[in-house]
Write a structure and sequence with these properties.
Number of strands: 2
Helix content: over 70%
Number of helices: 6
Radius of gyration: 20 Å
Largest sheet: 2 strands, antiparallel
Distance between the termini: 26 Å
Mean pLDDT: 88
Order of helices and strands: HHHHHEEH
Structural class: mainly alpha
Low-confidence stretches: none
Strand order of the largest sheet: 1-2
Amino acid sequence: MNGDDREIRLDRMRYIKNTSSANLTYLGILFDVFFFVNIYRSDVDTYYYNILIGISIVYNLVFLLAAFLASEGAKNYKSGYTWLLGGLGIGQIIRIFIIPMRAHSAMTLVNGVETLVMQNGQFFRVIAYLVISGACLLVAAAINYRKCHELSGHLKSLGLQGA
């Protein structure tokens, strides 16, 4: 790409949205919903009826709202949302070690028979959902950081500072 093409691409950023970061964030939200549905539709006796699940549900609602807010901010090249996206992505990875790991190694009585709370298939599926969700959010953060930095530099070169 020569210098003129780069200048045109950078100048176009002033008028078009950062859809790549926003779409990756939406994808991260979608995989979080898959995780949410997969975990909370499980009915293994009373294992999931505890305070940890209540906290997880509240966190999930806050996550969904924050991720949508971050997608809108990233769409408009707001650099502050880069850190929110990164934090949410790291949070998704950390969540692997809370409910899925505990449920996979836990046993409970169901009709007098000792049963695994989370079978291997469900365990690998929810891990994949969280990893994909986290990865999408981390990549969205990286793209947003790069694009915001490029646009900011371009605006400064035009003398528009923060327009």
